[in-house]
Amino acid sequence: MKITIDREDLLPILANMANIADRRPVQPILAHVLIEAAGQHCRFVATDLEVQLSADLDHPVDAPGTCAVPARKLYDICRALPEHTPIEFHKDGEKLLLKAAKSRFTLHILPADQFPYLSTHSSLCQGNGNAKTFREALAVVANTMAQNDARLFLNGVLIEVEGQELRLVATDGHRLAMMTLPFASSLESGSYQAILPRKAVLELLRILDDGDIVLEMSDASFLLNDGTQQFACKLIDAKYPDYRRVIPQGHPRFAILDRQAFKSALQQSDVLVSDRNPTTHLHLENDQMTLRSRNEEQEEGEIQIPVEYQGDTLDIAFNSRYLTDTTQIFPQESLRMRVKDSDSSAVFTPVDSNNPLYIIMPVRL
């Protein structure tokens, strides 16, 4: 194998591959990136047997060949080189020789036939969408995923396809986020559900950019293709709970908040929240919201902001971090907060729609 590639064409591909490749692999091959070169095309593949990423690069090949190269070492070498440096790859037996300007490197490689591809299954649901829209929707729900929860279905994001819509839902048991986006689905009737694991969600947030994407989903695997990259992962083998039962109906009270004013007030309130129990108390009364915080040293903060609220006086408390996430989830400048009482969850949405939707359970006063 012999090929010469410009550093700037190679670096973003290797950065993605190095993140996928396992740093503490059970099998040594899992710390490697597979390089396949032939004709006018190169392909790079990395996997940890849970997720897999392959990237295609149209580039003339001097001599065809394949090999598995240590992913992190190759990325670190390329990153350290000067910009726009041509890098020559030359496979010599069990070694890969790298030449870049006056620099020379030799890396041990493994046979390509040892590389374990992630298996995928026959598609049950497929469709087309937009990468940027899909990434933005994932970003909305990602913060509400659980981490290392014994209930495996909480450690990921539910994908639900109904008609020509795709819905993403995530919850950690204390809050829930949901967003719906258009999706040109192949489903003619019924619906499809799958749970994307946490690592897959985080990798997709990192690699997705813009343009058209194709999704193919089975009962055990997920595949995304954007034309130059193909991302695949195993799905969580569990049934997601009925999230619709968590969405409150008929909350009679609501407040309209200015997002920037709310964000500023939360930032001020957070200075004096408890480290062990970060709680912000909200007091709603006659077009005014008061945010109160207190810490272990009995230090207190109180911030008032104007809101649109007409109704009975209400006191309710929430985890401070969960409240702060509302200012990150919504791009709109005004938010609607629907509440019932101090013991019931609050629902945050844009003023003119219910998409996205964010629900927070209260802290008992």
UniProtKB/TrEMBL annotation:
Residue span(s) of domain DNA polymerase III beta sliding clamp C-terminal: 244-364
Superkingdom of origin organism: Bacteria
DNA polymerase III beta sliding clamp central domain location: 131-242
Main location: cytoplasm
Keywords: Cytoplasm, DNA replication, DNA-binding, DNA-directed DNA polymerase, Nucleotidyltransferase, Transferase
Family: Belongs to the beta sliding clamp family.
Biological role stated in the UniProt entry: Confers DNA tethering and processivity to DNA polymerases and other proteins. Acts as a clamp, forming a ring around DNA (a reaction catalyzed by the clamp-loading complex) which diffuses in an ATP-independent manner freely and bidirectionally along dsDNA. Initially characterized for its ability to contact the catalytic subunit of DNA polymerase III (Pol III), a complex, multichain enzyme responsible for most of the replicative synthesis in bacteria; Pol III exhibits 3'-5' exonuclease proofreading activity.
Subunit structure: Forms a ring-shaped head-to-tail homodimer around DNA.
Name of the protein this chain belongs to: Beta sliding clamp
